[in-house]
Design brief:
Elements: H1 10-36, H2 42-67, E1 70-71, H3 78-91, E2 97-101, E3 108-111, E4 119-123, H4 124-129, H5 132-148, H6 150-177, H7 185-226, H8 229-242, H9 248-253, H10 281-295
Membrane topology: Multi-pass membrane protein
Binding site for Zn(2+): 141, 145, 215
Transmembrane segments: 12-35, 41-58, 151-173, 185-206
Length: 300
Amino acid sequence: MARTRFQPDRGLTSRMVLVMFLLGLLYVAAVGGLIAAGLNLAWVIIIAGGFLLAQWFFSDKIALAAMGAREVSPDEAPELHAVIDRLCALADMPKPRVAIAPTDMPNAFATGRNPNKAVVCVTTGIMRKLDRTELEAVLAHELSHVAHRDVAVMTIASFLGVLAGLVARFGMYSGMGRGSRDNNAALVFAVVWLASIAVYVISFLLTRALSRYREFAADRAGAYLTGQPSALASALTKISGDMSAIPTRDLRRSQPAQAFFFAPAAVGRSLGNLLSTHPTTEQRLARLAQVSAELGKPML
C-alpha cells in the first residue's frame, strides 16, 4: 500500500496478490484453451486490451459520469473539503479530487488508479443524513481504500469479468459459425460454453470475496485513523437503514458503482453472502466493536 498513516493490512495485500495471480492464471488457461480449439482471438484481445486501458486511465471519470457527479472546489463545498483536508493531513497522504453526486441515496465511494489520481465522491443524501463526525468516519474509510490501492485492483479484477464474457461470446459465435464446415463444431461450442461459465463464475466469486474483505479492512483502517469506531458504526447504521426508502429507480441507476460504495445500494433480496459485494451490516458492526475494544473506547 502507499506509505501513509493508515494502518496497513497484510491480509488485504495478500488477498489482492492472490486474486490477481489466480485471475491471471485463469485467463491465460482460458485463452490458451480457446486458441488450441482453433478460435481466432487476436481481434478480441486487441479490442479488450483497448477497453482495459481506457478503464484504467479513465475509471474515475467513468464512475463519476455513471453517478451524474461533478468535481467541486473548496469554494463550492468548504465543509466537505475541510474534512478531507484534515484527514489527508492526519494520514499524510495526497489529497484526492472531491466530487458530489446529486442523489438522495446516502453513500460515498472512492476511485482512481493511484493516490495521485484518486477522487472521493459523496452524495447529497449522505451530506444531509450524517453529522460531521460520522461523515468524517465515512471519508476516512474511503481514503483508506485509496491508500491501500485496492480501488485499482478492484478496477482491474472487475474488468476481467467483462473480458471473460466478451471472449466467451466471441468463441461461442465462432464455434457456431463453423458448423457447416467442421464436424467438430458442436464439440467446440460445448467446450467454449462450459469454459465461459467456469471463467465467469470463478472470476465473479474471487472479486466478490476480495470486495467483502476490503470493506472490513477499510472500516478498521478508517476507525484507527480517526479513533472513532462508534462514529463509523453510527454512520453505517443510518445509511443501511435508509436504503429501503430510496426509490428503486435510483438504486438501479447506481448499480454499476455498487462494489465501490461505502454501503451496498441493494435492489431486492440478496441471493446469499457469496454473491454480495459487501459484508452484512451486522458483520461490519461486530468488527467495529472489536476495534472499539482494542482502542479502549466503548461503542455508543
